[in-house]
Every structure is written in C-alpha cells, then in structure tokens.
Amino acid sequence: MKRIFILIVLVILAGIAGIVVRSTSGGTVAELRGLVSHNNANDVRQEIRHTYELSPGARVELVGLNGAVKIETSETKTAEVYIERTASSQEALDRRKVTVEADANSLRIRGEKSDSGFFSHFFGKSAGERVTLKLPRQISLYAKGVNGSFVTSDIDGAVEVAGINGKVHIANAVGRATFKGINGNMVVGLKKIDQDGVTLSGINGNIELQFGSDVNADFDARGMNGRVVSDLPNVSIDKSKRGNYWARIGTGGSGITAKGINGNIRFTRGAVAPAEMAAVSEN
Fold it and tell me: In the prediction, which pLDDT does 213 show?
C-alpha cells in the first residue's frame, strides 16, 4: 500500500509540474526554422532543410542524434541536409534542440536536450529525428551517440563511428577507420586500408568486413566472444588461444585490430563497381 500511495503522489506531482511548465514556456526552443505540422493532438512534426557548399576533405560531424541516419555520397561539392523531427506534443519537441552549423570546411549536426525540469525530464517522451544527408564523397566522417541505424555509401576519407545503438553499414571506407561502442551488427566495406589501419572495439554484434580485390592486410583480434571466419581464398587464420585470432589477408600489410567483440567476424569480398566489371570484361 505504501508503494502504491507513493506512485499516486508522483503521478499527481508530475501532472502539476507539466501544467506549470506549459504555462511558463515562452515560445519554441528549436534553433532552426522549419515546417511544423500538427497531424493530430498527439503528433507534431518539423522538417529542416539546408544546402551548403563543402570543400574537398571537409569534416562532417553527427553527434547526439535520437534516430536513424542515412548518408548518400557522390562526386559533388554540395551538401544537402534533411531532418525530420517528430514528437508526441509541441512541448516534447521544444524540450529538445537540434542545431546545424556549416562552413566550407565543416558540417556539424548536433542534438541536445534542454533542461525543462525534473518531472518533465523523467515522465516526458523525448523527441526524435531522422537525418538524411546527400554529401560529397571526399569528406572525413565523425559520428557519436546515434540512437538508431547508421548507413552511408562510399566515403573517401577517414571514418570514426562511436556509440551507435543500431546497425552500422559503411558501403566503402578509404583511409583510417575507427569503430567503437557499437550495439548492433556491422557491415563495413574496405576498398583500401591506409597506414593508420582499421580499429574495432567494444562491438556487441556480428561484423562483416568486405574487402576490395586488391586489399592486403594483417588482422589481430583479442578478447573475442565469437569466431573469425573467411569466405575469401587468400586468407589464413590462426587461433592462438581462446578469444584471440590472427589472420593475413592476401600478402599482409596495414593492420586491422579488434578488441572486445561480442559476436562473429566474417571476411567477404566487397561488391564490384560497374566500372571495375567493365574493365574485367574488356580483358
């Protein structure tokens, strides 16, 4: 009975706090202009659209996003940003900020939650967003704290992805690649591996590494709770002791390190681009 009484009191206080917050709020806290539509009393949506010009090698940062991220890349200098924000009420939408900042050398998209009181924070439902980007292929990509799937096409630059709660799919990475704190399955295409190599750590899910036809690398895994297997003919795998694996892809070369993986790692061949297929057929 005591627990039930306490719960009833908390619910009543939460209702009172919600009324106070609504009566004292002075407009939206969203930092970006967008289209807001009310489909019904419990559904609020906001669309954010921006276009920027980026220099080759520009840094793109995505931090603290509550929803899926999809990135399409091409041979362009234009970055197109589309963000769809949704919440159960305007109050819930206003409690969360999404900011977009850009110049020629960088694009930064950040989600933040504003302070609106203990009870609103505890009982309120957080707003979410779906981010769709069309970007130049020649960029460096940094993503941290995404609560949703993270999917991108080819990136001709460094890739660092951390703290993702969802599947991760990188079509092709060229350059240094770092993945850590991923709660979901991963598929990563490795067209080339530079001298800085590839790092995988704290992954809770299966990992598929799709190698380009001319990639040579050495692989070292420690503290794995899973197996390392290969679908490639030119790979030798050695298991020295429980949880530790070593492998050579092709003739060996740049390093791929894995640590604290709770899942299997599989080596496969990456998809062949149409241009490469045409060159092979001509020969």
Answer: 86
